[in-house]
Design a protein that fits this description.
globular; three-stranded antiparallel sheet; about 240 residues; binds 2-phosphoglycolic acid; 7 helices; seven-stranded parallel sheet; alpha/beta
Length: about 240
């Protein structure tokens, strides 16, 4: 496990973006796993800027997003489909056919879970999985208690996650109660993991995940078992490490 402590958000964004860019440049047809939320926004801005400067080319890159809400249309502002296009995809040259985000059509959810897993395998597996961490230690939408051998599945969001994500909605009642998410096994099968966090509100959970027991109570604690884990954090998030 390699922990890179950055002095501020700018340094954090540049450090994370350089890692992603280096991996793409050494394997142009890389398969990336991507997160949503506040955590990757500085990374996505920096990647868009590096793309504009001609320093990275996404034309052969394939992406798989970690998760998507159930109960929101893809076209709605808060869908992760919309988030990814607004924050990254529309700014870079990734091909539409190489973008994968779990399909949340309520009529085919069980099948989508199986097909998402199959698609990842048929792409050769995820080379680099970028992750954020929830305040309760979730990775993707794998809430505390999720088995470590889980694959893509449908989950009930915890009260804590609903409260944390309410900031993106007009009222907490509008936050979906369910989501489709890669499982913990799906994430752990990635060849490399880049865990990102910034801000003092992530310091406590990072400490629990990285220095405490490996337990399903803190899903991110499983990452310590991954042979190729890099963690990029700012000074505030790393203050208890
Ligand atoms: P955040 O969420 O990036 O919005 O803090 C992280 C997560 O829930 O994984």
């Amino acid at each position: 496990m390699n922990i890179i402590k950055c002095k501020d958000i700018d340094d954090y964004a540049k450090t994370a973006a350089q890692i992603v860019t280096d991996r793409i440049n050494s394997k142009p047809d890389i398969v990336l796993g991507l997160p949503t939320g506040s955590t990757p926004v500085p990374l996505y801005k920096e990647l868009s800027s590096l793309y504009n400067q001609g320093k990275v080319d996404f034309s052969r890159v394939t992406t798989y997003n970690l998760d998507e809400y159930i109960g929101l249309d893809r076209s709605s502002e808060q869908s992760y489909y919309n988030f990814m296009h607004t924050n990254l995809f529309k700014h870079i040259n990734v091909k539409a056919e190489n973008i994968n985000i779990p399909n949340n059509d309520p009529n085919g959810l069980e099948m989508e879970c199986l097909e998402y897993e199959t698609a990842i395998k048929e792409s050769g597996g995820i080379d680099l999985q970028v992750l954020g961490i929830g305040h309760n230690g979730h990775i993707g939408f794998n809430e505390p208690g999720t088995p470590f051998d889980s694959t893509t599945h449908i989950i009930e969001l915890s009260e804590e996650t609903i409260a944390a994500n309410a900031r993106f909605f007009d009222t907490p009642a509008m936050v979906p109660k369910k989501a489709i998410s890669m499982g913990i096994r799906t994430i752990m099968l990635s060849k490399e993991i880049l865990l990102l966090a910034y801000g003092k509100d992530k310091a406590e959970i990072l400490k629990r995940a990285l220095t405490g027991d490996i337990t399903t109570d803190v899903p991110a604690s499983v990452l310590k078992l991954h042979p190729n884990l890099t963690i990029v954090v700012d000074e505030e998030a790393s203050s208890l490490l």
